[in-house]
Specification:
144 residues; 1 helix; 5 strands
């Protein structure tokens, strides 16, 4: 009497295949979620970097003025909006493609921290989604 040898199964069953596809899909969804988070954080970092650069530009423009400029003799009680375009009155916002809309304020404090030194505070704000962020820089100008 001949006994037929038992054939070992080749391949996967349908259930094994469905389980593997489900695990693979869950992994792909996790990677996609990480990509979205990464893109969002990169966008915020870009806007924050631009805000820092804008604040640095405004502060440098102010500090480049002559020490005898009457601009440095003023004490601002509250922040004053910065005019980004001196040719057009009232242009208080700067739009940077891909980064957003930025607004800046300055505040001057003459004779602070000591006589003949004016403290200049620059704050640049932007809104990304529902969150408003502000980058601040401080500089000092010595008057003669």
């Amino acid at each position: 009497m001949w006994i037929k040898p038992v054939r070992q199964s080749r391949g996967f069953t349908l259930i094994e295949l469905l389980v593997a596809i489900t695990i693979f899909a869950a992994g792909l969804l996790s990677v996609a979620g990480m990509q979205l988070t990464g893109i969002r954080h990169t966008s915020l970092a870009n806007s924050n970097s631009v805000a820092g650069s804008v604040a640095q530009g405004v502060l440098e423009e102010i500090l480049a003025r002559e020490a005898t400029d009457p601009f440095f003799d003023v004490d601002d009680v509250s922040p004053v909006a910065w005019d980004f375009d001196s040719d057009v009155i009232g242009v208080n916002n700067l739009t940077v493609n891909g980064a957003g809309v930025f607004s800046a304020t300055i505040q001057r404090d003459a004779d602070n921290p000591t006589n003949n030194i004016t403290r200049v505070d620059v704050a640049v704000s932007y809104t990304k989604g529902t969150v408003t962020r502000t980058v601040s820089l401080t500089g000092f100008k010595r008057s003669i």
